[in-house]
Amino acid sequence: MATPLILEFTKMNGAGNDFIVIDNRFYVFSDEELSALARRYCPRRVGIGADGLLALNAPQQEGVHYRMRYFNADGSQGTMCGNGARCLARFARMAGLKAAPLWFETDAGLYHVDVPDDPQAPVRLYVPPPQHYTPRPALETSLPETIEAAAFIWTGTEHLVCFVPSVQAVDVAYWGLQLRHDPALQPRGANVNFVEVLSKSAVRVRTFEKGVEAETLACGTGALAAALVAWQQQRVEQLPIAVHMPGGVLTVGVDPTAQHGFFLEGPAVVVYRGTVEVPMPLVP
């Protein structure tokens, strides 16, 4: 039997959206192996417990500081994760990457991020403009009058934005699952955001995430989707927008001086560091 690998990891969270984070510049796990790690250690009660696994990879392009790899708890690969990106940026800074801003590659394109030296200060992620905005998509799911499927939008990954009178009254587990699998959104499906407008510059959001297949305490790309759709449809009147999620508050705004004008800002916190014995090989 092969000797187990002692894997060092850091547990982090962004507004309650939690992650296992590893420095894959050292381990050089393949995507298939990272997927296996996510399936093994993300389940709660029987693993470390997390919404997903983040890997800090060496960059593939000149002038970029690192490559972000993200895998959901079920092992599926995510193109982008807003809370995860902020956490990985803070991890990269702690791992010795001192450039300001930090530029990194994802499967959704290039991003950059400002990481303050203060470990308790929020991290600001600059994002490219959203794509594939489709107001009132033609869904096959029959919805109650209290749920308005307002738009599909891509903010690094696929999102459906639904406006409701009260997010607390929504059965997120039921309606999130139904809409996430709606035939009109296949083959990739979509994260489903239920959005309540609080004021001219604030919304409350609950998100059902694909790959996790459950509601999460926060979703960064979901916060972007909810805020930008509300702004586009004039349901809110001004940026920045405070996005209240079960795990905390994220801010979506615009900086006209930045190369990528829109930003997502919020906490990126180290919870603890640890090691785990990983049976090898990970993939037969």
Automatic annotation (TrEMBL):
Binding locations of substrate: 17, 72, 82-83, 191, 220-221
BP-aspect Gene Ontology terms: lysine biosynthetic process via diaminopimelate
Record keyword Cytoplasm present: yes
One cellular component (GO) term of this entry: cytosol
Compartments, as annotated in UniProt: Cytoplasm
Pathways involved: Amino-acid biosynthesis; L-lysine biosynthesis via DAP pathway; DL-2,6-diaminopimelate from LL-2,6-diaminopimelate: step 1/1
Major place of residence: cytoplasm
Cited Pfam families: DAP_epimerase (PF01678)
Function: Catalyzes the stereoinversion of LL-2,6-diaminopimelate (L,L-DAP) to meso-diaminopimelate (meso-DAP), a precursor of L-lysine and an essential component of the bacterial peptidoglycan.
Protein name, entry field: Diaminopimelate epimerase
